[in-house]
Write a structure and sequence with these properties.
Largest sheet: 7 strands, antiparallel
CATH class: Mainly Beta
CATH topology: Methylamine Dehydrogenase, Chain H
Structural class: mainly beta
Number of helices: 0
Helix content: under 10%
Strand content: over 45%
Shape: globular
Number of strands: 31
Radius of gyration: 20 Å
CATH architecture: 7 Propeller
CATH superfamily: YVTN repeat-like/Quinoprotein amine dehydrogenase
Amino acid sequence: MGQVSVAGESPVKFSRWIFALSLASVASAFGSGGVANITPSATFFSLPTEPTTETATPIETPTLTSSPLPTLALIPTVTFTPKPIVMADLPVIVTGNTTQVMKLATLNPEAEQLAWSPDSQTLALATSDGILLVDLSEPTKARHLKYVGEYGSDVNTVAFSPDGHGLASGNADATVQLWNLDSGEVVWTSPGIGSEVTHVIFSADGTQIISSLREAIVPWDVGNQQRAPIFFRGHTDWVLDVEFSPDGKTLASASDDGTVRLWDAKTGKALWVLKNNSLGVWDVAFSPDGQTLAAGSRDNLARLRDPKSGQLLRTLDTGSATIRSVAFSPDGQLLALGTWEGPIQLWAPGSGQRLSTLNGHTSGVTSLAFSPKGQVLASASYDGLVILWGIEP
């Protein structure tokens, strides 16, 4: 394995594999199979009887629109190296030499966000031309899910359901959609909710989809799609990220208003609100044990807090690099910080030590995600590349 380090850092061994998607004429085929088991029996949220500005505010029941089936389209060019990706055998990159990379493809348009399937075998990529599903064992057979809405097929965010059979997408046309991945069909489209959707996540039991947008967080009941949504209000600018705590009881949100908020996931009550800075907070992430909440900001700092009290535990200073995305490894031993400038910094959250800097992107890192099994860090960037980094403990 190669390793990259900077002065004063302890090296972390890694390897890197880049694949891209440069659009040109490979037909995609939808998989077949039974209907996904994504309809839960549990009830979503209990609505508060007298909501305030800090609790969920009910709105009138909207009229649900019908959902046309997705268009089966050609993936506008995919030139993959004709070999499967083997997670345990990623190519070794010479230390400090960022030119020796295996380029599988280049994605145009770039991926706004990526997400791993629960089995660590598939990457979903949200783009302005729909969703790409890349099976890492057969990358040449990527599937293209394309829904034509009011603003074309612009998808900002994606998330797999816990059973891997469903996919939620948040779109530029202010809708949230639920896809059946066995059939490749849209099974539900939300009513428009006022502004484009910036982030979506599933609850651990698959009964809830949470979406974020301008100044609000909107939960949806997967099992009762006719139920009117409720808005969690309090932010005064775009809500850029929202995440569940590992126990599913709370939500954390990051906003361009410079605050981080923690919410009761059932009632929508704000548990605490902290002013991070005046420049805005891009991303938040809970540690796997739920004891730490990391928030990455435009002021080049990642703040680690106790989610129960909001107390500041540690501040990580990236230097001159603006933080765009954050992600904990599944074992909680690594915290990855993606920057606007392109490099990815790896930190030990327990000690506050910067371990390594991964150089490969040349523009802002829009999304970071460790595979559920923990061996691989995936990154997407405005430079059009999606990179897989093999991390050794």
